[in-house]
Amino acid sequence: FLDFPFQTGRIEPNYPKVCGHQGNVLDIKWNPFIENIIASCSEDTSVRIWEIPEGGLKRNMTEAALELYGHSRRVGLVEWHPTTNNILLSAGYDYKVLIWNLDIGEPVKMIDCHTDVILCMSFNTDGSLLATTCKDKKLRVVEPRSGRVLQEASCKNHRVNRVVFLGSTKRLLTTGVSRWNTRQIALWDQEDLSMPLIEEEIDGLSGLLFPFYDADTHMLYLAGKGDGNIRYYEIGSEKPYLSYLMEFRSPAPQKGLGVMPKHGLDVSACEVFRFYKLITLKGLIEPISMIVPRRSETYQEDIYPMTPGTEPALTPDEWLSGVNRDPILMSLKEGYKRNSKIVFKAPVREKKSVVVNGIDLLENVPPRTENELLRMFFRQQDEIRRLKDELSQKDIRIRQLQLELKNFRNSPKNN
């Protein structure tokens, strides 16, 4: 994948890429607390952590800061914890969700309650709950540290695809397909998933609907894969809960969308949300800004309340021990100033096994396809190369010690 945070306009065809995976990259996420760290997952069964150098890439990056192996099938989703630094979740086609502590570079918990491929994951505001949608047509609310399913909905009339927590309202919003194959959204109470609070049909198109929620302005944005428009709604605390406002229209269809963090918005222009729209037909990424029209040039307190900042509220050990804490908030009044002193330090790992809940995740996992066999071969080649380098270094050290011993014996003092 490409990384060009400091450049605008069309890039050169030979622009450096992050290209260390041995399979297609299926998901990437920027670290919310360290702005030059990216997590990616791939068909090669690995999750990798990349450290983008200051000033951007100067050459292709093939060496990851950290490689994480624990899934037996390809990995489709990664998600950073919203309040804790160095906690990362990954969901694989082995139907498992692994919780990684990047301080030690190992999985520390495993969520094993799904019976099919996991389609989407979403944390609540303080990261104490995880909502998932699955190909088995079920919506689940899970306590991630224990893996216990707190609520579960079997969505027969509303086949769920995507889910998002609506801030601290204790509600969930899902997008999916109705029994008549029309695109649909549903609102749920996170403490009772027996029936949705409301269901609303959108249209009869076939592309996935991606939901994006802005807790500061209580705005919900819906963008369909293959559509050219983005609808936006206001979320209320009372019925009818969901109020349609209007939509952004464009003739160019979108394949995917990324979102700029709040601290990267232009507050002087009253920009409240910014999408980065992937237009595959033209090979373009187009920024789309959502701007509240205001005549005044002063800072607008009502549309920029205190918002989650770039400082983590918890350490991995605190969160894993059961502590929950709301995000540390920051003001956007003075504009974003990078004052975070957190840096990512990849741990040195010697263990050859990955044991979670008493199970070695890497033991006796046979390749299921020819591609998996090739990926296992490449992984073994990397391990052989590493061991050869380690052996070469030890040979050099042995020769050095032999010379030192010889010099010591020939020393006049010892004679």
UniProtKB/TrEMBL annotation:
Keywords from the named record: Coiled coil, Repeat, WD repeat
Which PROSITE patterns does the protein's record reference?
WD_REPEATS_1 (PS00678), WD_REPEATS_2 (PS50082), WD_REPEATS_REGION (PS50294)
Q: Give any GO molecular function from the UniProt entry.
A: actin filament binding
Protein's name according to its UniProt entry: Coronin
N-terminal signal peptide: none
Q: Please state the gene responsible for encoding this protein.
A: Coro2b
**Family statement:** Belongs to the WD repeat coronin family.
Residues in WD repeats: 18-60, 68-110, 111-152
User: Where does this protein have coiled-coil stretches?
Assistant: 384-411
Record Pfam families:
WD40, WD40_4
Q: Give the source's domain of life in one word.
A: Eukaryota
